[in-house]
Amino acid sequence: MEFSGLSPGTIITLVVGLALAPFVAVMVTSFTKIVVVLSLLRNALGLQQTPPNVVINGLAIILSIYVMYPVFIETYDHIGEQTQEMAKEDMTVDTAIELIGYGKQPLKEFLLKHSSEEERAFFLNSIQRILPEERRERVNKDDFIVVIPAFTVSELTSAFQIGFLIFLPFLVIDMIVANILLALGMMMLSPTMVSLPFKLLLFVFISGWTKLIHGLVLTYV
Q: Secretion signal: which residues (predicted)?
């Protein structure tokens, strides 16, 4: 397989596409929701830099790979079959685009499954209003231009809903500790610092990491 017929403009486009690939990968996988939930957990516990960002991002990447593994395998199978058929042909831009087209269906199914119907309807209606009238009928509700933003908004919404539930018990602990300190006249002590050991004890006692990670993974089943 050889690459031929690549103009300088096409090469620049490919380089830009590769540079944007990590950003796109973050937005079309489970990474966004997982990293937001873990960050909200850290804030709820009252910890500033523990776990550090590198640990949160690393854990989010590992869990995202785990969640997206079936999609990766199915995409690889789709592309692999077509690659064998095209092995004896020169790889042109059109051929590469066609090859990518064969592998996009598993990802599209994942995005459709985990995006809100209301969000897809909104973004479809919005893009049809933005586009010129003669192009509006070309956009479907299953197109990536509609599905990707709908998926991203749905993931952020779900992440903040989970974050709200995480915050509640720790907020109760903060309020109880603050009232006790106020009743004892110990207003010079920081309620946040005093309540931190109790919040950590509660989180460890209920196996918080296990339950949270299991729950995040199961949201994609």
A: none
